């Protein structure tokens, strides 16, 4: 079956920009040529993808169903082509690592800056994923090592500890609790709180440490990312508890960080790699550079 990639690309451009005019400009086409591509695609598929009036363009139900699949396919194809281009640059060496997003946006850039000064031609691919995803990438050999939360049960990993990261309460500086230096978790019983999705490693650590006491707290909001939780705190919506390291790149003006006790909760961050598989010289040098940024 022949796949009309030009038509699919045109369809995504229109869907993302909401107009033929803007999509045509993006693709460097005339509106007539763009219309021809869409018409040909719809004729091939036997369904209408776009509902067009003189004032706006909207997606039909068939278009809504098709759009995410086409975008995923184009993204996957683009990644495959990028990988082929990288492999074709024989003069360049590549290095792949995994890293938690909170570290990737905080400590990692400093290490990469030093590494790049010594190796300007090395291509570094960073998988800034969750702890679970990083473990899978390390195990599969997709990355040489990962900077992640350390799990004691991973007997198949070599582990190098980096830091013990403490969870801290984040509240607006005008909040009544902001005047306290230390609080107990029981002091939060009546406060609306924001927690991270249950799929996140940080959430699991908090839930395990609190046990049944977590049910006594008022978890009013649940978000996917720490940045969203901080934005809600800044707006005065609720309070949140996050690892201190995740605030490395956050503008703390208007916010107050308060230590939590009973229990004090921490996460262990470290570098993990496959046991018995030595790192390449470049990966080992980057590993040493990263360790230095945590000292």
TrEMBL record:
SUPFAM superfamilies: Periplasmic binding protein-like II, Winged helix' DNA-binding domain. One of its GO terms (cellular component) is cytosol. One of its GO terms (molecular function) is DNA-binding transcription factor activity. InterPro entries: HTH-type_LysR_regulators (IPR050950), LysR_HTH_N (IPR000847), LysR_subst-bd (IPR005119), WH-like_DNA-bd_sf (IPR036388), WH_DNA-bd_sf (IPR036390). It comes from the Bacteria. Pfam families: HTH_1, LysR_substrate. Residues 1-60 form the HTH lysR-type domain. Keywords: DNA-binding, Transcription, Transcription regulation. Belongs to the LysR transcriptional regulatory family. This is LysR family transcriptional regulator. It comes from Microvirga subterranea.
């Amino acid at each position: 079956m022949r796949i009309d990639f030009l038509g699919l690309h045109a369809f995504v451009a229109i869907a993302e920009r909401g107009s033929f005019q803007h999509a045509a400009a993006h693709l460097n086409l005339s509106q007539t040529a763009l219309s021809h591509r869409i018409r040909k695609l719809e004729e091939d598929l036997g369904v209408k993808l776009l509902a067009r009036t003189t004032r706006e363009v909207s997606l039909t139900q068939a278009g809504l169903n098709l759009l995410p699949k086409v975008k995923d396919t184009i993204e996957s194809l683009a990644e495959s082509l990028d990988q082929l281009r990288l492999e074709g640059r024989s003069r360049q060496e590549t290095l792949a690592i995994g890293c938690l997003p909170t570290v990737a946006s905080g400590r990692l850039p400093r290490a990469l800056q030093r590494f790049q000064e010594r190796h300007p031609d090395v291509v570094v691919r960073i998988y800034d994923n969750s702890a679970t995803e990083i473990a899978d990438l390390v195990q599969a050999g997709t990355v040489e090592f990962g900077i992640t939360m350390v799990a004691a049960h991973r007997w198949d990993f070599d582990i190098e500890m980096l830091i013990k990261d403490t969870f801290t309460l984040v509240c607006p500086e005008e909040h009544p609790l902001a005047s306290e230096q230390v609080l107990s978790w029981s002091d939060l019983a009546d406060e609306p709180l924001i927690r991270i999705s249950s799929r996140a490693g940080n959430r699991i650590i908090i839930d395990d440490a609190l046990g049944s006491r977590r049910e006594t707290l008022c978890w009013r909001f649940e978000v996917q990312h720490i940045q969203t939780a901080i934005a809600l705190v800044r707006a005065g919506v609720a309070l949140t508890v996050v690892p201190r390291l995740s605030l490395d790149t956050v503008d703390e003006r208007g916010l107050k960080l308060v230590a939590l006790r009973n229990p004090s909760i921490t996460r262990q961050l470290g570098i993990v790699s496959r046991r018995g598989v030595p790192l390449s010289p470049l990966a080992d040098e980057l590993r040493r550079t990263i360790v230095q940024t945590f000292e």
